[in-house]
Amino acid sequence: MARGRSPGHLRSATLERLGLRSIINASSWLTSLGGSLMPPEVLAAMQDVSGHFVDMAALNRVAGERLAAATGAEAGMVTAGASAALVLQAAACLTGDPYTASQLPDTKPERCEIVIQKTHRNRYDGAWRLAGAKLVEIGAARATAPWELEGAIGPRTAAVAYVEAPFLCQPLSLEQMVEIAHRKNVPLIVDAAAEVPPVGNLRRHIACGADLVAYSGGKGIAGPQSSGILCGRRDLIEAAWVHGLNYDSPHAGVGRPMKASKESIVGLLVALELFLARDHEADLRRWRAMAAHVVAAIEGIPGVHAAVEEDGRQGPQAVIHLDPPHHAPAVVAELLRGDPAIAIGEGGFRGELYAVMVTLRNGEERIVASRLRDILMGRGAR
Ligand SMILES: *Cc1c(COP(=O)(O)O)cnc(C)c1O
Questions:
Q1: CA 82 to centroid of ligand 1, rounded, Å
Q2: CATH 3.40.640.10 boundaries in the chain
Q3: Cα distance between residue 276 and residue 69, in whole Å
Q4: 342 touches 332 (CB < 8 A)
Q5: Across the beta sheet with 228-232, what order do the strands follow?
Q6: All CATH 3.90.1150.180 domain ranges in the chain, comma separated
Q7: d(CA 32, CA 132)
Q8: Is the CB of 372 within 6 Å of ligand 1?
Q9: pTM of the complete model beyond 0.90
Q10: Number of H helices, E strands in the chain
Q11: How far is ligand 1, taken at its centre, from the CA of residue 88, in Å?
Q12: 194 ligand 1 Cβ < 6 A
């Protein structure tokens, strides 16, 4: 592999000392690539607070008020990532009583089941089980009927879960599920970790009647990678505190291993403020133009079909279908092996390649386009 070809902004003394390299990320806010890049204002606020001791309960209470205002919820709190928010959702729905909380996950209250559609099962849903909840699956691989949800809710049901993510199918709408859950007096909890942007999603789930919602702080909001938002009904947020954030309790509960640091809390608040103030339309226009540049660079290469798509995706993307003998996994591997290393998405809706723009810095789309062109023209190996 040729060395020293990387543009200056990809040089990192810290990574080099560790024998690692900076990667151009055209595959979205992936945890495996470091989430997102925090703006300098976020880092400055984190550095500032890191020089101070502070009343952590008061800090997260203040943060909660800001999160509530941003989401339209009654209350909120900063968590150590959306996954930690899911653990706290489950814990809060199981119990808000300190004694019962101290028994989790060994001894559970009678209401300990979370109903989830088979279509919503995903790699993150184990977080709901961590507090001791049992997932009860309903529906078929790609379909659920309303009566299946109605029938599954009983005296053991603690909550109904709803997951929103690219590539998940939604046979029942959020509104429909909220209506059924509430008619049976059960809270509806939402995992919407990677659904922001669009900025409107920050308020949409609460507006639809969801009782607790989780968002990642370190994806599209560009806060610390290990930060998250939990927002929703005040009594349930209070119950979530009982499980680990009530620092006066003699028992640190199931939420304690996932504490948010003062740097994380402040970093997320500043990131959210900047995110809310962004010109989101301008972002969209920029990403569309970048995706169009990638498509234009590879259009017309035999066996390559490329177009800009954005419906149901994380921002406008260059979506590429390949005829044999092109081989998508080989293209992905070659991009990652090259210098600079480039990560693009593979799989998606129909086994396609997709270059995501939301995590690219200005100008990086030109590097992605020319490397893709070289590889697809058979000039990639070096
Ligand atoms: C990323 C993601 C999570 C985990 O979020 P973290 O903030 O990394 O903890 C959970 N659920 C879904 C659907 C996600 O995309």
A1: 5
A2: 40-277
A3: 12
A4: no
A5: 75-79, 228-232, 212-216, 188-191, 157-163, 113-117, 134-138
A6: 8-34+279-376
A7: 27
A8: no
A9: yes
A10: 14, 12
A11: 14
A12: yes
CATH annotation of 8-34+279-376: 3.90.1150.180
Instruction: Report how far apart, in Å, the C-alpha atoms of 24 and of each of 8, 56, 357 are.
Output: 12, 36, 11
Please tell me the distance between residue 196's alpha carbon and the centre of ligand 1 in angstroms: 11
Cβ 170 under 6 angstroms from ligand 1? no
Judge if the beta carbon of residue 196 lies within 6 A of ligand 1. Answer: no
What region does 247 belong to: left with phi over 0, alpha with psi -120 to 50, or beta?
Answer: alpha
Determine the pLDDT at residue 380: 60
Q: Residue 46 Cα, ligand 1 centroid: separation in angstroms?
A: 22
CATH architecture of residue range(s) 40-277: 3-Layer(aba) Sandwich (3.40)
> Which pLDDT score, from 0 to 100, does residue 113 have?
98
For residue 34 and ligand 1, the question of a CB distance below 6 A is answered with: no
Q: Which atom of ligand 1 is nearest to the CA of 83?
A: 9
Number of other residues whose CB lies within 10 A of the CB of residue 153:
20
Q: Is the CB of 83 under 6 A from ligand 1?
A: yes
- Which range has the worst mean pLDDT, 2-6, 199-203, 302-306, 333-337? 2-6
Instruction: Indicate whether residue 315 lines ligand 1 (CB < 6 A).
Output: no
